[in-house]
Amino acid sequence: MKNSKISLFDLIGIGVGQIIGSGVMILTGIAIGKTGHGVPLAFIVAGIIVAITNICLATLGSAIPANGGQYTYVRDLIGKKAGFFYVALLAAGQLVLANYAIGFAEYMKELIPSINVGIVAGIMMTVVFLVNIMGVKTAVKFQNLLVIVLVISIGLFIVLGFPKITTFKPYTQMKTIMPNGFTEFVAGIFLVRFSLVGAEYINEFGEDAENPGKNIPLAMIISTVLVSIIYLCVGFVATGVLPIEEVAYKTLGNVANEIFTKPIYYFFMVGGAMFAVASSLNAVFAWAPKGLAVAVEDGWLPKILAKRNKKFNTPHFLLLIFYILGMIPIVTGGTLEIIAVLGNNIGLIFAAMPIIAVMFLPKRNKDAYEKAYFKLPRWAMTVLPIFCLFVFAGGFYSNIDFIGPFGIGVMFIYCVIVAIYAKLREPYVKIRSKDDK
Fold first, then answer.
1. Global confidence as pTM
2. Which sign does the torsion angle of CA 429, 431, 432, 437 carry?
3. 67: how many CB neighbours lie within 10 A of its CB?
4. Which phi and psi (to 5°) does residue 184 adopt?
């Protein structure tokens, strides 16, 4: 029945909830260190980039509405090996799990200066891992509650923070917008871009949405624009209340302490910042194993990896993989900046693959493309994805100096290993596919 379907309003709510998370709490300070008063402009440019990317992905959601995710699009429109390559990079990109755990610890340290950030981050990672192993049924409701608290916290940050801004002159001068040069400004754009992604997951509701061909693209764009405006305001408050050197490469706690009374400050730090980081960490553990699980079903990985716990019906081995990935930077002493930049660059690589899939849609599934409610002209199905790919490449290049030869080498070796494994494993996947038919 129509009433049982997810409406446009509901889809927008889902999109906003997916986008708003801990990214703005953790990455804004790092971006300030790179761009100074250019952070608001960085949010605007990042919002435009994400919106164009989502327009491309929306064509897939409109033409082939399915509860399968980006892995399915890459697999079906580019090829099986490409699908596995995508999910392997997606898994590696979850090194950013450490970002959430360390971010939680950094905010706690502002309340309790004597704590050890590494130990608290490790404990937080372990607690969330165990919670997901046990498969808490109330996780979704709890997650929604945390998002509501976070939105209230950000609202208070903006409303009470704007009157504290004494001048807007630094936002009009090139030397304060790009104090470290254009390359660092671009790097800042791609850092805050990471805090704006999430609307693409609306594609997951293709079979459940009301009029998906129309409403999914609209919801993706509207939710991205709404959150971009919210983050733009956060950027002004974060850079306009205190001197840049007091907020660069730090959390928003310093600014919050300046604009809030003590009770509201504690509400923001605990209910907003720390809970938001915890909810994002929990969300990644919830959705990240899904792509690998499908890859296991397709035959790319041993069946045992998708084995489920008899008591809780959770994929404990897949969860363990992500737990180990998240713990590596914590154990090795990685900083928020290092993890954010490395994870963002890996993310740019695997995020490019569904964009490439868009270019194949008119040829590989012409019927679906022609019948789609929302579709770009054929020229745009090539031009916009190519534009996105150039932008992604620019973002990757802007961080090459920071990552260094060692980081680039590690990513290259990982990609080569994945490509070799995919080539060797492909015959088994083909045989299995025939058997399934």
1. 0.76
2. positive
3. 11
4. -65, -35
Task: Give the amino acid at 239.
Answer: T
Q: Tell me the pLDDT tens digit for each residue of 28-62.
A: 988 999 999 999 999 999 999 888 888 888 888 77
Pick from 137, 103, 29, 89: nearest CA to 281: 103
Match 């697999």 to its residue by tokens. 75
Which own/partner contact pairs does 426-434 have at CB distance under 8 Å and 24+ positions apart? 426/80, 426/81, 428/299, 429/80, 429/298, 429/299, 429/300, 430/80, 431/299, 432/298, 432/299, 433/298, 433/299
- Per the listing, tokens 């600014």 go with 255
Positions in the chain short of pLDDT 70: 1-4, 17, 21-22, 65-69, 135-144, 146, 204-208, 287, 335-337, 430-437
Q: Among the CATH numbers 3.40.50.620, 1.10.443.10, 1.20.1740.10, 1.10.287.180, which is that of 2-436? A: 1.20.1740.10
Handedness of CA 169, 175, 178, 180 (dihedral sign): negative
Which positions ≥6 away from 359 have C-beta within 8 Å?
381, 382, 385, 386
The ranges assigned to domains in the chain are 2-436
